[in-house]
């Protein structure tokens, strides 16, 4: 078990190195612009050369990358070219805002889509029509439009919620909840659309299997067959969707943060990219890759716990 | 005949044509497809349809209202023609969709074919590469790489295409792995057809439908993501795009909501049409989507009046039908009558498709939800079972009737230990404590011939053999001490040597407990082995009912005779000659 986790983490690290290397190689093609941006309006061709040298951007790309990697593994992610802010501090601060939105949205989506997906698969009828309708709507309308529509309706017309801005949880929990409410709703709509369909599908697959009939033949109550047996077997495929859904929400959150002017990961990464703030771009990349890797590991471990065939001894 | 001509005949021309015809009759496909076509045409003829370029700005037109001469939908905050910008934005969306989808398909299909068709090792490599691609945080990467792409729509969408490719890769790989082992692909391979040709002619045909469906969805997500990025400001400000229009309009919302509404509506129409078109394509190419599985008793039926015979089980004039796609009912069992007396072993014999398993399921009340019992009666001790609710049926199943299935492995829940499944059944039917139930299950496992009951009790189904699994299932069935055991081909899926042991076990259990057994089988050897009487079924009807001895001695129906001839040539199940069969042959 420990060996398995260690092996998975090692592969994860290799992945992280590869992803950051590729990103760095791609970024290196535009280092001249970065230097120009750092110098600002004062940039002249005469100044660019020496500045590039001072920043170490004139060295061979691989050397630069290894240098960055060496510092990074020691926990030194560097500082922003523009604000001199410590990268780790800056990135983790922003990540908190984005992750809180995503995790809340994910939990709500999971609860609703499991309930809806199971009801829809095992009962049919109204529950099935509601589930199918919801998942259609979630797919039909781009999240961006749902976001703006909700701002228009709830914040501007009804004045129920603040349209934009962010209040930290520690400052005022009530206002915090109000500021993230609409972004969370937007993510939940698409989350439910994706996961309900998946859970409904795998529940239908399970309920059609032979063992369900055999369990019924022994007089076992329907409730136990649906919730204990079929749901547990359907959870494996659903879990894969869950980790993909997390990634998708992460991407969507980047755009939605912008609509609501939330000081999250996305807007931060966006500004860093526009400026060409290489240390921050690299830090953002490392954190997101590590997040994906650990998420996949957790998904696999839970799957192993659920599915005895995949269990690691 | 060469493989070439064979495959020419196998090409699924007819279904393809009918799928296209279904599509043309489907209003959803027609409307969404038509709408998309109109939108694309508008984009193509943008210069003809609008007097202004997308970026022409005029101070006179700043926030001009709709209907201003030359500005049918008005002007935006920098005095640009909204109508012209909408038309040119269609072009940007179309380019995004085409670039991203083309890249995703090229990468995904190529590697899917390679990874699916060739050796495990190559698949290992492609798997790894695509799991690497999936680790890239999609939209974030597109933002991060802005200094590299310089916001060019085509470059950005090409990268997005690569990020989309894992889904296509997985789709194609799974389909190819499935088709790779088909006989006709084997034949092509053996006959020395070049790999490239096999992939193109045989494998691509299979993946074509799912790819067409996926393309619609890919285009939708490419257009959505492009708009989202442009909304953020990724991309050149001179390229008109729904995203940048929505962003401008959003900022100008209080001045003129229509500046926001037009691009939002058009974008919404386009992505919604693509999703709906994709759904219509799926229905046309892959048939209907899966329906819910309702766990409930069949439709309530008025019990027919009938005198109680003294038998344990009386099935009278039973008919079962299934709805066809066109809505009519097709009978699979038509008017079957049979009886089982207490402690009697009755065989139901016939080929597959003769309705024998359907009859058995009907007695158990376990027909699939879509099955309809159109007439007849099933009585246990004179009590009508048809029309009972699920709760009452559950009591009957837990106490009086038990079931041994055909395929042992698929009839055990893979996620629970053997013991846990059996204990739950015992508790449900007997209402005893968990500890007592466990003891009972261990005793039963020992009784059905499992060497180490404690160990098997803690095993998961995949850890035991097929023969063991069948013993476990028999233990689960007899746990409730039923009066009637329905065994559906209980030995068919097992090794020949194990078959005989399982039959012996069933016979011993039947003698010990005095339960009746209804044994569904296609094998007259099995019938000869343990059945007192036999019911021969063909095409949903009973053709002959008699004692086993009589049937073997002189089959009345020609069909029975054919069945017997196909069995009694020395290939019976047992190594020692079955008693009844020998008796039949000797006389």
Automatic annotation (TrEMBL), chain A:
It holds the Pfam family BPD_transp_1_N. GO terms for cellular component: plasma membrane. CDD domains: TM_PBP2. GO terms for biological process: transmembrane transport. It is found in: Cell membrane. The chain crosses the membrane at residues 101-122, 134-156, 176-197, 238-260, 280-302. The keyword Plastid does not apply. It is a multi-pass membrane protein. Residues 95-299 form the ABC transmembrane type-1 domain. InterPro entries: BPD_transp_1_N, MetI-like, MetI-like_sf. Keywords: Cell membrane, Membrane, Transmembrane, Transmembrane helix, Transport. Belongs to the binding-protein-dependent transport system permease family. This is ABC transporter permease.
């Amino acid at each position: 078990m420990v060996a398995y986790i260690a092996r998975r983490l090692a592969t994860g690290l290799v992945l992280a190195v590869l992803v950051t290397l590729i990103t760095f190689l791609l970024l290196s093609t535009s280092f001249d612009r970065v230097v120009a941006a750092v110098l600002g309006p004062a940039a002249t061709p005469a100044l660019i050369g020496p500045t590039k040298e001072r920043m170490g951007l004139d060295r061979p790309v691989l050397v630069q990358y290894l240098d960055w990697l060496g510092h990074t593994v020691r926990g030194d992610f560097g500082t922003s070219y523009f604000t001199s802010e410590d990268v780790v501090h800056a990135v983790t601060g922003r990540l908190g805002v984005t992750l809180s939105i995503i995790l809340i949205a994910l939990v709500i989506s999971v609860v609703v889509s499991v309930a809806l997906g199971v009801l829809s698969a095992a009962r049919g009828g109204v529950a099935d029509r509601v589930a199918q309708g919801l998942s259609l709507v979630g797919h039909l309308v781009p999240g961006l439009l749902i976001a703006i529509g909700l701002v228009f309706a709830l914040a501007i017309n009804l004045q129920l919620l603040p349209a934009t801005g962010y209040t930290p949880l520690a400052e005022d929990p009530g206002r915090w909840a109000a500021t993230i409410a609409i972004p969370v709703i937007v993510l939940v709509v698409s989350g439910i659309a994706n996961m309900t369909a998946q859970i409904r599908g795998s529940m239908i697959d399970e309920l059609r299997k032979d063992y369900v009939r055999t369990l019924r033949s022994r007089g076992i109550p329907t409730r136990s067959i649906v919730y204990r047996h079929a749901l547990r077997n359907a959870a494996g495929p659903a879990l894969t969707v869950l980790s993909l859904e997390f990634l998708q929400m992460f991407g969507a959150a980047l755009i939605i943060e912008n609509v609501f002017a939330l000081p999250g990961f996305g807007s931060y990464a966006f500004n860093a990219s526009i400026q060409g703030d290489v240390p921050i771009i690299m830090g953002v990349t490392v954190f997101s890759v590590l997040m994906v890797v650990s998420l996949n590991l957790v998904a696999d471990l839970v799957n192993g716990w659920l599915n005895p065939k995949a269990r690691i001894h | 005949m060469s493989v070439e001509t064979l495959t020419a005949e196998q090409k699924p021309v007819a279904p393809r044509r009918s799928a296209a015809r279904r599509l043309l009759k489907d209003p959803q496909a027609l409307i969404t497809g038509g709408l998309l076509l109109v939108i694309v045409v508008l984009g193509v003829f943008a210069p003809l349809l609008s007097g202004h370029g997308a970026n022409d700005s005029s101070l006179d037109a700043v926030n001009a209202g709709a209907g201003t001469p030359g500005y049918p939908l008005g002007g935006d905050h920098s005095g640009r023609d909204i109508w012209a910008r909408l038309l040119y934005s269609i072009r940007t969306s179309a380019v995004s969709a085409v670039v991203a989808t083309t890249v995703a398909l090229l990468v995904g299909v190529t590697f899917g074919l390679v990874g699916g068709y060739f050796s495990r090792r190559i698949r290992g490599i492609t798997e790894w590469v695509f799991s690497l691609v999936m680790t890239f945080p999609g939209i974030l990467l597109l933002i991060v790489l802005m200094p590299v792409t310089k916001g060019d729509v085509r470059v950005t969408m090409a990268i997005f295409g690569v990020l989309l490719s894992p889904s296509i890769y997985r789709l194609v790989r799974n389909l190819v792995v499935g088709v790779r082992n088909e006989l006709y692909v084997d034949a092509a391979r053996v006959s020395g057809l070049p790999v490239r040709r096999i992939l193109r002619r045989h494998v691509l045909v299979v993946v074509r439908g799912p790819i067409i469906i996926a393309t619609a969805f890919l285009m939708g997500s490419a257009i959505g993501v492009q708009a989202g990025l442009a909304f953020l400001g990724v991309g050149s400000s001179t390229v008109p795009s729904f995203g940048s229009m929505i962003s401008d309009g959003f900022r100008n919302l209080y001045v003129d909501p229509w500046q926001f509404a037009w691009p939002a509506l058009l974008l919404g129409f386009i992505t919604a049409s693509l999703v709906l078109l994709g759904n219509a394509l799926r229905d046309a190419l892959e048939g209907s989507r899966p329906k819910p599985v309702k766990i409930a008793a069949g439709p309530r039926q008025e019990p027919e009046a009938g005198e109680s015979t003294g038998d344990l089980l009386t099935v009278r004039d039973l008919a079962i039908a299934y709805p066809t796609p066109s809505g009519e009912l097709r009978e699979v069992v038509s008017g079957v009558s049979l009886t089982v007396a207490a402690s009697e072993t009755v065989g139901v014999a016939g080929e597959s498709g003769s309705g024998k398993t359907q009859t058995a399921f009907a007695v158990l009340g376990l027909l699939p939800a879509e099955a309809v019992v159109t007439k007849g009666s099933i009585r246990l001790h004179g009590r009508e079972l048809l029309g009972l609710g699920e709760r009452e049926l559950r009591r009957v199943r837990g106490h009086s009737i038990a079931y041994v299935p055909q395929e042992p492995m698929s009839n055990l829940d893979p996620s629970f230990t053997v013991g846990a499944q059996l204990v739950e059944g015992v508790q449900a039917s007997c209402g005893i404590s968990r500890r007592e139930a466990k003891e009972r299950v261990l005793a039963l496992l020992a009784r059905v011939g499992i060497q180490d009951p404690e160990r098997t009790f803690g095993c998961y189904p995949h850890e035991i053999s097929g023969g063991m699994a069948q013993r476990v299932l028999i233990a689960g069935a007899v746990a409730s001490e039923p009066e009637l055991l329905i065994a559906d081909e209980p030995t068919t899926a097992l090794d020949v040597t194990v078959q005989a042991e399982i039959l012996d076990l069933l016979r011993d259990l039947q003698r010990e407990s005095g339960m009746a057994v209804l044994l569904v089988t296609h094998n007259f050897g099995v019938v000869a082995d343990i059945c007192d009487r036999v019911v021969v079924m063909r095409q949903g009807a009973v053709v002959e009912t008699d004692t086993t001895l009589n049937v073997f001695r002189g089959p009345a129906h020609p069909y029975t005779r054919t069945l017997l001839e196909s069995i009694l040539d020395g290939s019976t199940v047992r190594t020692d000659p079955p008693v009844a069969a020998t008796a039949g042959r000797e006389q």
